[in-house]
Amino acid sequence: MKLLSFAFILICGVAFAQNSPIKTFVSNQDNQHRWLNEYAEFLSIPNVLGDSINMLRNANRISEMLSKLGIKSELLYSGKYKSAPSVFGEIKVPGATTTIAFYAHYDGQPVNPKQWAEGLAPFTPALFTDRLDQGGKKIPFPTAVEKINPQWRLYGRASSDDKAGVFAIITAYEALLKTGSKPTVNMKFFFEGEEEAGSINLDEIFKRNKEKLNADLWVICDGPRHISGKKQIVFGVRGDVNVDLKVYASKRPLHSGNYGNWAPNPGMRLAQLLSSMKDAEGNVLIKAFYDDVTPLTALEKQAIAKIPEVETILKEDLLLAKPDGGGKSFIELLTLPTLNINGMQSGNVGTMASNVIPTEASAVLDLRLVLGNEVNRQVQKVVDHVALQGYTVIDHEPTDAERKQFPLLAKLTKRKGGYNAQRTTMDLPLAQKVAKAIETTIPYEVVKVPSAGGSLPLFLFEQLIDGKPITVPIVNYDNNQHAENENVKLEYLWEGIETMAAIMQLK
Amino acid sequence: MKLLSFAFILICGVAFAQNSPIKTFVSNQDNQHRWLNEYAEFLSIPNVLGDSINMLRNANRISEMLSKLGIKSELLYSGKYKSAPSVFGEIKVPGATTTIAFYAHYDGQPVNPKQWAEGLAPFTPALFTDRLDQGGKKIPFPTAVEKINPQWRLYGRASSDDKAGVFAIITAYEALLKTGSKPTVNMKFFFEGEEEAGSINLDEIFKRNKEKLNADLWVICDGPRHISGKKQIVFGVRGDVNVDLKVYASKRPLHSGNYGNWAPNPGMRLAQLLSSMKDAEGNVLIKAFYDDVTPLTALEKQAIAKIPEVETILKEDLLLAKPDGGGKSFIELLTLPTLNINGMQSGNVGTMASNVIPTEASAVLDLRLVLGNEVNRQVQKVVDHVALQGYTVIDHEPTDAERKQFPLLAKLTKRKGGYNAQRTTMDLPLAQKVAKAIETTIPYEVVKVPSAGGSLPLFLFEQLIDGKPITVPIVNYDNNQHAENENVKLEYLWEGIETMAAIMQLK
Q: Do residues A303 and A448 lie in contact, with contact meaning Cβ atoms separated by under 8 Å?
């Protein structure tokens, strides 16, 4: 087995270095003690958007971290009131001809401290022996002589999403510096402060700093490693747009006895309309829904074939007997557009329900887009489908005249925002080099995912700064991202430093 | 035309008396002035269940009204804590062999004073020149010399539903007394105080007073006259039962991007399940749904054919371009069982919507029953239908093991309460006599409706006191029953006295 592995590694032209200087440096207990304390202190600065003073404290702390390593930094502002700045730093490496920009964000999701487990608070980082819901016990921060267990978890808001990215990127450069390892590329650091609010001002910051943010590749350090635990590179994201849909019945709510069978029920109308959009396996039945999807490239298909199976883990974790998709793999399904019912409502359920025929029924749809889809065209497909079901589609509350004239009325409106998918080609030479660099830190092939299921406005990188983004996530999958009890497994944090350091030394 | 009408009346054996002593007495301005003031005072006593002191004040006021006419009354209690009593009175008429019991209720629907129009309060009766939303102006109560306009409306809670019934029944007997008109039947008066709460203690009161409440016919004076404005007799009510339905997906809410296309959406499942229950015209597709419906009798069909058309009025009023029912008439549709979605919900709509795949979706169904249907059998039809769609139907929140085992899980539970339909045969001789009696007060045939669309626990009359109920409503259709700004048109109130007086003199 060992021989075979070795042969495989040679064929791939990649050397997994079991004892590289970086690995040794990262394993060093003194370093880990210092990092653990520094990182916990960093996490203790609240980072929820709107708390402008603390957002600035976070940005300044990052500037200090860079400054300690001899990197001059500056804060980039959008110019909008209360907008949190991005932190920018740059390292020019003599002889380097390639520039890689590293991205992470320092803001975190809003918190509801009441939802956090006993003994936990979002901005009071706490150490546990294991995952809280799997028997983990709270322990004090270790003394200098106590060995740090890589299975320990550090709990706190943004411990994974995404101060881990900020920490790993900067610490990777520290590891290079202190081990005398030479970076092979020029580096730019860009740490955003408004990602969780939808990067609302990123476009403005990009427009103001196009020259400064020029790079050959953007490494986005955000999100978790593959569900299997393997390191991965994600080459794209889906786009996203929301649609509000409302159907109508009588103008006044009616007694369900006095009018039942004669007066149409808007909930039933909505149910019939929604159910016309998907079959029992979740395939979208809307005409031309999949027609403009850019087919997967051969390379993407090959990559997908190599991605470890995750369905078994997910079905067990989510208690799902049978997923949608008619047998297509999880990852393949993420490369297709979606139509999801975020919410639907008519009348009341539970104790507030009454024997009434309501006047209207509403749904909010979430349309995820893939390469080839276009926001307005995707919304139009839904409009056309609703019209095909006999509805008169309007973009306003119906007038009395419209109610009298049209048997079936649907209001359909696109919500503000919404953007297309972004995908970076998997055969981009520089991305291949990043993959190989990461593979020097692991005894297996890095998982290459054509597109994540989720959405990020990565199109902004392409459109506004000619950037080619790829995502290299480092944290554990079960980190409770966006929710209460967010955490990071220390093993993943340390390995994240190695990952980023390897990219800085790509060949 | 006159000759023809006269001929018709002779053929029917009924004489519409344009100037009967009762009509003259009811038209008398002194009487109307007195009644208007007395009725307004009666309405000013709050009558919402739970307000025990005022409920008792109402009951005592009714006893006084009876007492003034020489009728001894008593309060019938259910024995339950805070239960409002029913008021019972009786008149034995020498020589009479038939006993008619008159029913009305003195409690009203709960009120939210804030919802009432400016200048109106639920228990401060106010007089208007016309319907409030049709240009009606508030006017002071008239002085003794001012003529009372029958188009005026009296606003206040229970002005129509159902103190109007109490008032008309008692005042009808006053009219008989004071005009020297002889009643032809023994009479019982029964005024309930808990109808709006679902007659929750009526069974107990019936059980305790079976002998006392023995009668050949029960005249239920509740609800509005026919939408066309004509007087009507309603021979039955639909039954009613509510069902809670919930379907499930993953146990945790999921990111709609990260899992979209793979994780099933519970809202879509519910939409598909609900839409399988009805076709586009509102016909229920559940197996055997209509199979046990007792067919309409020839008499009922004849009666239906004679009922004035109401669709035109309703479509205009409710701004409905096309009703359900595939062309069946409004009244025919009320003789069929219903399946109505009172409410449905999954996730959130509006500003609270987020890009999530919710964990579950719920609906509350209202099943109206007609003659032949049985509550438990009707619910079972829905259970069977859900199972036929591939669902495992459970009556509890699913366990983890059930979630893992069954691809489709639906929780379906019948709500407490629920009762069958009741219908009194239209050829009941005494009911025919009531119809003829009413027709002495009108120049047209009384509208005979086999069944109302709504539900009342009239089966209690049949089951517990061997009663045969028919409903004789007196108030205007547009009275805002159960809602804010409840009102009664004085013309209908006066005509209601005539209707009840005629029944007391039936031949």
A: yes
